[in-house]
Amino acid sequence: MKNEFKGLIVQKNKKFSIKDAKTDFVGSYNKEKAKDALVNSKIEINHLQETLYASATHSILIIFQAMDAAGKDSAIEHVMSGLNPQGCQVFSFKVPTSEEYEHDFLWRHYKALPERGRIGIHNRSHYENVLVCKVHPEYILSENIPGFDDVKKINKNFWKQRYQSIRNFEEHLTANGTVILKFFLNVSKAEQKLRFLDRIEDPTKNWKFSSGDIKERALWDDYMKAYEDAINQTSTKESPWHIIPADKKWFARLAISEIIEDKLKSLNLKFPVLGEEEVAKLGETKLALMSE
């Protein structure tokens, strides 16, 4: 798959257009073939996670962004099911609380960053502040930012500064050992409609549906423009965006898993090696235990 998946990483200074990105790409895979490949990839990630935890030199921050019903939750469930919970943490960001609104927009996300040796998964993230907030600029007023007490004042310069803040934030994290993997699950509007209908018709999925989802769906074009701008403005060499075709959940899960696997492998992590004195102590301890 890795060769088939070329061209779906948005590099710095490379213009990305959502309308040119396929949502139904599956390459040469079918559902069964992808299912088997995902099992193998998860096994490999589990081993690599153990090395990551033991070496404690890097942390991994995995960001999922997408429209409603694109499959973020199921991707996290299936791809991460093989991880050791002790070395993994998942945060789902909702509407900011009153306390969070009393700080800058990155504060609550900084608090949720993974420690060295751990994998952090952010289901939605600091990017909501240039996505939903760009579609609904009135939300910015709740942040009480000096000089921005009217929606009309939230102009291009405001968004330019916000993109810069995000780039600086991620550059700082990268420089200090956090590897950032950003995934945009690119689902089509037609597929979203089918998934919404499925949630309405299946009683066991009713809880997943909200009438507010339909209101946001009506703003689809605005959201696509916001995503396109955010991806183009924040794709860097160190933390590019990965555009995942999401119409077929089984393919999206495999694509995400193999990207994570490849990134972990590229770190060339090793288990810590004990010094001669520590090794000698192990030998002494072994003899003491055997003589009991």
UniProtKB/TrEMBL annotation:
Annotated keywords: Kinase, Transferase
GO term, biological process aspect, one: polyphosphate metabolic process
Region forming the signal peptide: none
UniProt GO MF annotations: polyphosphate kinase activity
InterPro entries on file: P-loop_NTPase, Polyphosphate_phosphotransfera, PPK2-rel_1, PPK2-related
Keyword field contains Transferase: yes
SUPFAM superfamilies in the record: P-loop containing nucleoside triphosphate hydrolases
A Pfam short name: PPK2
Keyword Kinase applies: yes
Recorded family membership: Belongs to the polyphosphate kinase 2 (PPK2) family. Class I subfamily.
NCBIfam families named among the record's database cross-references: PPK2_rel_1
Record's protein name: Polyphosphate kinase 2 family protein
Source organism of the structure: Pedobacter frigidisoli
